[in-house]
From TrEMBL, chain A:
List of residues binding [4Fe-4S] cluster 1: 371, 374, 377, 420
Role description: Part of a membrane-bound complex that couples electron transfer with translocation of ions across the membrane.
Protein name per its UniProtKB record: Ion-translocating oxidoreductase complex subunit C
Organism whose genome encodes this protein: Azotobacter vinelandii (strain DJ / ATCC BAA-1303)
GO CC terms, sorted: plasma membrane
TrEMBL record, chain B:
First-tier enzyme category under EC: translocase
Name assigned to this protein: Ion-translocating oxidoreductase complex subunit D
GO cellular component terms, semicolon-separated: plasma membrane
Positions where FMN phosphoryl threonine occurs in the chain: 171
Listed transmembrane segments: 45-64, 71-89, 95-113, 224-242, 254-271, 283-301, 307-324
This protein's encoding gene: rnfD
Keywords in alphabetical order: Cell inner membrane, Cell membrane, Electron transport, Flavoprotein, FMN, Membrane, Phosphoprotein, Translocase, Transmembrane, Transmembrane helix, Transport
Cofactors named for this entry: FMN
Similarity remark: Belongs to the NqrB/RnfD family.
Membrane-topology annotation of the record: Multi-pass membrane protein
Major place of residence: membrane
InterPro entries: NqrB/RnfD, RnfD_bac
Length: 688, 343
C-alpha cells in the first residue's frame, strides 16, 4: 500500500534527525510524583473551571475541572490524593509566567475512581462516543492541543471524506509517536476504528515518515483486514505539519485561514487516537501521555508515559539529567519547541518532548549578518512564502505589506531560519510582527467601538436637546396663547390664567372669591417667610392678621362651593386634597423654621381641619376611600430581581474587561455572550 | 535555576554567508587559471591589485561607518567583488584602471547604499561600467593570448615599460561589430581575435566559467533559473536574428554564448542574489531580461559587449519583477500579482 501516489509539498529541510538517541528503549513508567500541578489551560481555548475545593480528596480519573465554553476541555485527577492548592503555578510557556492550576498532593495509593469500560465500541451511538471523548478531556496530543471533540464537530455541515492519521513525527529528536506506534499499534487501530465509526469517512490515510520502519511494520501488522491506507512518506521536515501532511497524502491544500474540514478532511495525531481508544474502551480519561526525554545532557534518553502535572524536573531526573551540561531546556523539538525557564513547570497534554541539549549539541547561532537575499529561505518555505521579503517588511514594520505577503500563512516551522546563511532569527521577526499586527488590530477594533459609542452618545444628546427645545417652544406657544386669552378678559390676574382657561364652570362671584383667597394666601406666605427670617412682633401680628384674612377668604369660597354642584364631587375631593397637602407643607415649614408652639398648634389645627374636610369630601364623592396601607408600585418579583441583578453584574464585568487592554478576545467574547444572554433572559421573562 | 529563554528554531544549519562567498571564489578558479594560462601573470597581478584595493577600502569605510571591521571583512564579499572585477577587466589594464573600477565598486556600488545586502546594483558591474564609459580605449581592447612573465607584467601594468605593439587589439565582438566586408569564415581566418567557436582565448575562458558555474549549481549556491534564463534568452535571440555567415552577420548562437563576458555574467553576475530578483520565477525573468539586453546591445547598441549594462538595467527592474512574480502561497488559490501600497 505504501507505493500509492504521494505528492510533495514545496520546500522543507533535512535537519539531523537525532531520533536514535531516544527510540531504542521501550516506553517506561515514571515513579508516582508526590505533587502534581495541573494547569487549567492545557489545550487551545478557554481554560477549564475547577470543580473541586482545596482540601478535597480526589480519586484517580475523577474530573477536577470542567470545560467552560465551546472550545475547552475538562481536566481529571491523574492520581488519587488531596487538592492542596488552587491558584497561580508555574506553567510551560515561553513567557515563564504563572498560570492558574490545581495542585494535587498524591497519597501514593493511585486509587482509581469508578470507570465505565466498554467491551465493544460498535455498540455505542456516535453521540455517546463523542460525549465520551469530550468528557475525557482529550485534546490533540500532537502539539497544538485543540480539543478533539470540538475538532470532530468543527464543521458540522461538511462531510468528512478523508480521515488522516498523523504519524509523521517529522521534528528531529522526538520519538514519542514512533514508540507509541511500535508498542500500541493495536490500540491505535481501534482508536481509528472509533473515529471511523464517528465520522464515517470514505478513506483513511495513515502517514508515517520512512525513518520509522519499525513503526510502519507494527502498524501494518495491526491493520489486519482493514482498508486503511498506510502511506510511508519520505523524511522531510515539516511533513508532519497538518497542512503539509494533507498535501503529501492527497495533493490538496487547505485554504488559507480555513480548516482541513473545509476540504472534507480531518487530521488526528496517533497519540490522540490511542487516547480515544483508552477512553472509549477502558473508560479512562486523559491523565497521562507519552513524552520523549532526550538531549545529550541526559544520561538515559528515553520515552516515558508520565502523568499530566508531573514537574518536568522529576522526569528529567529520572532520565539522568546533568544540569551542568544542559545549555537550555526545550519543550517540543529543536525546530518549533520553546524554552522553559524553570524545572518546576508541569507536563501538560500538549508536551510531546523535553529536550535538554548541551551547548555543543545545539549551539547558539552566530551573530546575524545582513540579508543577502539569497532566497534559500524561500526555497525551503513549506508555505511558499518569501521569507526574506517578510523580514524586510517586518524590520520596517510595514504591516500592510506583511499582510499582502501573507505573513499569517506562516506556520513558524523555522525552516527559513535554519537555512539562513546570515543567521537571521527570521521566525522571531515574524512572531513579533504577527503580535504587533494583532495588537494594532485589537486597538483599532476597540477604537472603532469607542467611536461608535461616542457617536451614539452624541446622537442621544442631540435628540434630547431637540426634545427639550421642542418642549420649550411648546411652552412659549402655550404662554403666548394664554396671554392672548388674558388680553381678552383683561381684568383676570396672571395667576388665574390657567384656571380661567380651564372650563371649571365657576361663576364670576366664585372666581372673585377664589382670587381673593389665593391673594391673601400668597401675602400670608410671604409674610410667613419674612417672619421666619426676622421674627419680630410686628410681623407676627401681621401674619396673624393675614392668616385670619386668608381663613375668611377660604371660608367664603368654601361657602360658595357646595352651591356649585357643577364642580362635582371629584373637584371638591381634589380641592380638599390640595388643601390638606398645603396645610401639611405649612406645618412642616413652620416646624423647620422652629416657630413657637402656639403657632404650631394653630397650624396643626388647620391640618386637622383640612383632614376632616377631606374625609367629608371623600364621603361626599362616590369614590372608594383610598387605601391607607403603603404599597410598592409593583409587587416584588424574586425572579425578576435575580435576572436584573445578573444583568447588572454581567454589564459591570464586561465594562471592567473592556477597560483592560491585555485581556484576550475569547474572555471578552464570553463576557459579551454572558451579557447578551442576561439581556435576552430578562427580556424573555418580562414579555411573559 | 534560571534557564535561558531562546526562541525557536534551536537547530541551525551550516549555511553561512562566508561559506557561500568562499565557494564562489573557488568556482572562479577555473576561469582564473585559464586566464593565467592564456595571458601569464597579468591577470594575477590585477587580482592582487583589485583585492588589496577592495579590502582596504572596505575596511576604511566600515571604520568610518563605525561597523565592526573584522566581522564584516570576514564575510569575503569584498573579495568576491574584487575577484569578479579582476576577471572582467582586460588583463593588460593599467593599475589605475583597476583601482578606479574597484574603488567605485566598493564605495559607490556597495557602501553608499549601506553595505552588504543593501546595494541595488551589482557592485562589480558598477565599477566595470564606470571604467568602461570613462576609459573606453583601455576597456575594449583585449590582448591576443600571450603569456606575460611576472616582471614583464608588473612593468606593463604600472606603466614602467609597455608591451610590444599589436599585443592588444579589438576583441572579436568588436571586430564583428565593425566588420562590413568579410564573411564569418574570412574573419575567422584573417582576424587573430577569432577562435574556433567564439573569440580566441575568450572561448576557453567562457568554458572555464561555465565549469565553475556548474560547480556552484551543484553545490546549490543558486538555482538554475537566472543563468538558464540569460543563456537561453541569448541563445534564442541570436538564433532568431542569425542571418548566416555573411559580412553583415550578427554572429552565430554559439559565438555569442562563448564570447565576451557571457559565461562570467551568466554564472557569477546574474546570480548575484542581492541585486537580482527574489523568487525563482523572478530570477528566470531577470535572467531572460539580461540575455535579451546583452544581445540587443551587442548587435544594435554602441558597445561591443553588453553584459554589464544589461545587468545594471535589469537590477533597476528587479524590484518591479519582485512585485509581479510572487509565488502562490500555500492554501491560496492564486498568487498575488500586485502589491499593496503601505498604509
Amino acid at each position: 500500500m505504501s507505493e500509492a501516489k504521494l505528492w510533495e509539498f514545496q520546500g522543507g529541510i533535512h535537519p539531523p534527525e537525532r531520533k536514535e538517541l531516544s527510540n531504542r528503549t521501550p516506553i517506561q513508567r515514571v515513579p508516582l510524583p508526590a505533587r502534581l500541578i495541573l494547569p487549567l489551560g492545557q489545550h487551545i481555548g478557554t481554560p477549564a473551571e475547577p470543580i473541586v475545593t482545596v482540601g478535597e480528596r480526589v480519586l484517580k480519573g475523577q474530573p477536577i475541572a470542567t470545560a467552560s465554553g465551546r472550545v475547552s476541555a475538562p481536566l481529571h485527577a491523574p492520581t488519587s490524593g488531596t487538592v492542596s492548592f488552587i491558584g497561580m503555578q508555574p506553567y510551560p510557556h515561553v513567557s515563564g509566567l504563572l498560570a492558574p492550576a490545581i495542585v494535587i498532593d498524591s497519597d501514593g495509593l493511585d486509587e482509581w475512581t469508578a470507570l465505565e469500560p466498554c467491551a465493544d465500541h460498535r455498540s455505542l451511538e456516535p453521540a455517546i462516543l463523542l460525549e465520551r471523548i469530550r468528557q475525557a478531556g482529550i485534546s490533540g496530543l500532537g502539539g497544538a492541543g485543540f480539543p478533539t471533540a470540538v475538532k470532530l464537530t468543527a464543521r458540522p455541515q461538511r462531510k468528512i471524506h478523508t480521515l488522516i492519521v498523523n504519524g509523521a513525527e517529522c521534528e528531529p529528536y522526538i520519538t514519542a509517536d514512533d514508540r507509541l506506534m511500535r508498542e500500541r499499534a493495536a490500540e491505535l487501530i481501534i482508536g481509528i476504528d472509533i473515529l471511523v465509526q464517528l465520522i464515517e469517512p470514505e478513506q483513511v490515510l495513515i502517514g508515517i515518515e520512512d525513518n520509522k520502519p519499525e513503526a510502519v511494520a507494527a502498524v501494518r501488522a495491526a491493520l489486519g483486514e482493514r482498508s486503511f491506507g498506510l502511506r510511508v512518506l519520505p523524511t522531510k521536515y515539516p511533513s508532519g505539519g497538518e497542512r503539509q501532511l494533507i498535501e503529501i497524502l492527497t495533493g490538496r491544500q487547505v485554504p488559507s485561514g480555513g480548516l482541513p474540514a473545509d476540504i472534507g478532511m480531518l487530521c488526528q495525531n496517533v497519540g490522540t487516537c490511542v487516547a480515544i481508544h483508552d477512553t472509549v474502551l477502558l473508560g479512562r480519561p486523559l491523565i497521562s501521555r507519552i513524552v520523549t526525554l532526550t538531549g545529550e545532557a541526559l544520561a538515559r534518553p528515553m520515552n516515558v508515559e508520565a502523568l499530566l502535572g508531573t514537574p518536568v524536573g522529576e522526569l528529567l531526573a529520572f532520565a539522568g539529567l546533568d544540569e551542568a551540561r544542559m545549555d537550555r531546556l526545550i519543550m517540543g523539538g529543536p525546530m518549533m519547541g520553546f524554552t522553559l525557564s524553570s524545572l518546576d513547570v508541569p507536563l501538560i497534554k500538549t508536551a510531546n518532548c523535553l529536550l535538554a541539549p548541551t551547548r555543543s549539541e545545539l549551539p547558539p547561532p552566530p551573530p546575524a549578518l545582513p540579508c543577502i537575499r539569497c532566497g534559500a529561505c524561500a526555497d525551503v518555505c513549506p508555505a511558499s512564502l518569501l521569507p526574506q521579503q517578510l523580514h524586510f517588511f517586518a524590520l520596517g514594520r510595514e504591516h500592510e505589506q506583511l499582510r499582502a505577503y501573507n505573513l499569517f500563512d506562516c506556520i513558524e516551522c523555522g525552516a527559513c531560519a535554519y537555512v539562513c546563511p546570515s543567521s537571521l532569527p527570521l521566525v522571531q521577526y515574524y512572531r513579533v510582527a504577527k503580535a504587533e499586527i494583532r495588537e494594532l488590530e485589537q486597538k483599532r477594533h476597540k477604537a472603532g467601538h469607542s467611536r461608535l459609542r461616542f457617536e451614539l452618545r452624541q446622537e442621544r444628546l442631540r435628540k434630547s436637546e431637540e426634545q427639550k427645545e421642542a418642549e420649550r417652544r411648546a411652552r412659549v406657544e402655550k404662554a403666548a396663547r394664554a396671554r392672548a386669552v388674558q388680553a381678552e378678559s383683561s381684568s383676570v390676574p396672571h395667576q388665574e390664567t390657567s384656571l380661567a382657561s380651564r372650563p371649571t364652570g365657576l361663576s364670576e362671584h366664585q372666581k372673585k372669591l377664589k382670587i381673593e383667597a389665593s391673594m391673601t394666601q400668597v401675602a400670608l406666605k410671604k409674610a410667613e417667610k419674612q417672619l421666619a427670617v426676622h421674627p419680630t412682633a410686628e410681623l407676627e401680628a401681621q401674619v396673624a392678621e393675614l392668616r385670619a384674612a386668608a381663613e375668611a377668604a377660604r371660608k367664603a369660597l368654601e361657602a360658595t362651593t357646595p352651591a356649585a354642584p357643577s364642580a362635582g364631587n371629584d373637584t371638591a375631593l381634589k380641592k380638599a386634597k390640595i388643601e390638606l397637602a398645603m396645610r401639611r407643607t405649612e406645618l412642616k415649614k413652620a416646624e423647620k423654621a422652629s416657630v413657637d408652639d402656639s403657632e404650631l398648634a394653630h397650624l396643626r389645627e388647620a391640618l386637622a381641619d383640612a383632614k376632616r374636610a377631606l374625609h367629608a369630601a371623600e364621603e361626599a364623592s362616590d369614590r372608594p376611600a383610598p387605601q391607607l396601607v403603603r404599597i410598592d408600585k409593583r409587587p416584588v418579583d424574586e425572579k425578576l430581581r435575580a435576572l436584573k441583578t445578573e444583568l447588572a453584574f454581567a454589564r459591570a464585568d464586561l465594562r471592567k474587561l473592556e477597560r483592560d487592554e491585555t485581556i484576550d478576545p475569547p474572555v471578552l467574547e464570553s463576557a459579551r455572550t454572558r451579557l447578551a444572554e442576561a439581556e435576552r433572559r430578562l427580556a424573555g421573562y418580562q414579555s411573559e | 535555576m534560571a534557564l535561558p529563554r531562546i526562541t525557536s528554531p534551536h537547530a541551525t544549519g551550516s549555511n553561512r554567508t562566508r561559506r557561500i562567498m568562499q565557494q564562489v571564489l573557488v568556482a572562479t578558479l577555473p576561469g582564473l587559471l585559464t586566464l593565467t594560462w592564456l595571458y601569464g601573470f597579468a591577470p594575477l597581478i590585477n587580482l592582487l591589485l583589485a583585492s588589496a584595493t577592495a579590502l582596504g577600502l572596505e575596511a576604511a569605510v566600515l571604520h568610518l561607518r563605525q561597523r565592526p571591521v573584522g566581522f564584516f571583512l570576514n564575510d569575503c564579499s569584498a573579495l568576491v567583488t574584487a575577484m569578479l572585477l579582476a576577471l572582467a577587466l582586460p588583463p593588460q589594464s593599467p593599475w589605475w584602471l583597476t583601482l578606479t573600477a574597484c574603488g567605485f565598486a566598493i564605495l559607490f556600488g556597495k557602501h553608499v547604499y549601506g553595505g552588504l545586502g543593501q546595494n541595488p546594483f551589482n557592485p562589480a558591474m558598477v565599477g566595470y561600467v564606470v571604467a568602461l564609459v570613462s576609459f573606453p580605449v583601455e576597456m575594449t581592447a583585449w590582448p591576443v593570448p600571450h603569456v606575460v612573465g611576472l616582471t614583464e607584467g608588473i612593468q606593463h601594468i604600472f606603466g614602467i615599460a609597455s608591451l610590444p605593439d599589436g599585443w592588444s587589439q579589438a576583441t572579436a565582438l568588436d571586430a564583428l561589430k565593425t566588420n562590413r566586408s568579410l564573411t564569418m569564415d574570412e574573419l575567422r581566418v584573417q582576424n587573430p581575435a577569432f577562435g574556433h567557436l567564439g573569440s580566441r582565448g575568450a572561448e576557453w575562458v567562457n568554458l572555464a566559467f561555465l565549469a565553475g558555474g556548474l560547480f556552484m549549481l551543484r553545490r546549490r549556491l543558486f538555482g538554475w533559473h537566472a543563468p538558464a534564463g540569460m543563456l537561453g534568452a541569448l541563445f534564442v535571440m541570436s538564433l532568431l536574428f542569425w542571418n548566416g555567415s555573411d559580412s553583415d552577420s550578427n554572429g552565430s548562437p554559439l559565438f555569442h554564448l562563448l564570447s565576451g563576458a557571457t559565461m562570467l555574467g551568466a554564472f557569477f553576475i546574474v546570480t548575484d542574489p542581492v541585486s537580482g530578483a527574489t523568487s525563482n520565477q523572478g530570477r528566470l525573468i531577470f535572467g531572460i531580461g539580461v540575455g535579451i539586453l546583452v544581445y540587443v546591445i551587442r548587435t544594435w547598441g554602441g558597445y561591443p559587449d553588453g553584459v554589464a549594462f544589461a545587468v545594471l538595467l535589469m537590477n533597476l527592474a528587479a524590484p518591479t519583477i519582485d512585485y509581479f512574480s510572487r509565488p502562490r502561497t500555500y492554501g491560496h488559490r492564486k498568487a498575488e500579482r500586485s502589491f499593496k501600497v503601505g498604509g
